[in-house]
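Journal club side-thread
Mid-discussion, someone asked how the predicted structure for our own chain would compare to the paper's figures. Pasting it here so we can look after the session.
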Amino acid sequence: MWATAVGVARVRALETERENPLFRDPLAQAFAAAGGLWPSSPPPEDEAARRRRLAVSFSIVVRTKFLDDLLLEASASGVRQVVLLGAGMDSRAFRMDWPEGTRLFEVDTAVPLDFKASVLRQERAVPRCERITVAVDLREDWPAALAAAGHDPALPTVWIAEGLLIYLPEDAVELLLARIGAQSAAGSRLGLTLGSRGVIERFSSDAVPGSAASMWVSEMPDDPVGWLAGHGWEADGHTLRERAAAYGRPVETPPQREERPGGLISAVRR
């Protein structure tokens, strides 16, 4: 899935080039170039495929801004441990301003972390906080690996699972949430992105084998706030349309179906 992470970096690089970007990610272009996705133009595609690609890109931009804001709020509340699950080409350790004492853990498998490390060396990138990589498969005992890397479950943590849960079957999602909860002190924060209802049906029917959409298997539960309450989290859900409007990037097309509940989730451990 590291190639998918490079694709996300390309979207972030394109956003960074905008006149008024929702965020700036100076390393994104380097990740995309090293992965062979920069410079490039979209492949030949029909109108329906083009619309789907633009919709996915738009969702990546909005979710990135949403989770940036969540992280800033968590830091302002005093949280100094950050865990990025399935970190991919995330460059928040390098592009965001972190309070002194922040420790940021990037959890992913060795292949994307090694690829990322080579680009970071090439770019001579310097993190703005203590950055710790944890090479482990999330299907394995990642909490033990995280603890061995220095994570302290007695202290509040802000957890980010961005663009991750949609690739996991339901039982794996439940296990992931249970493991996160077991490592979360009171005051911990959680940022999730969930696949909206019907997204697999809309995107996977003609998805190219090996593409991101071809690997999507999980959509949000009917009541994500209630679901997270069952895992010990007090959550709020937001739709992409709501957040896009708040960021000055309103969705011009009317909703085709009921868009609640939302797939952008922020939560607090009480």
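Post-session note: The mean pLDDT is 89.
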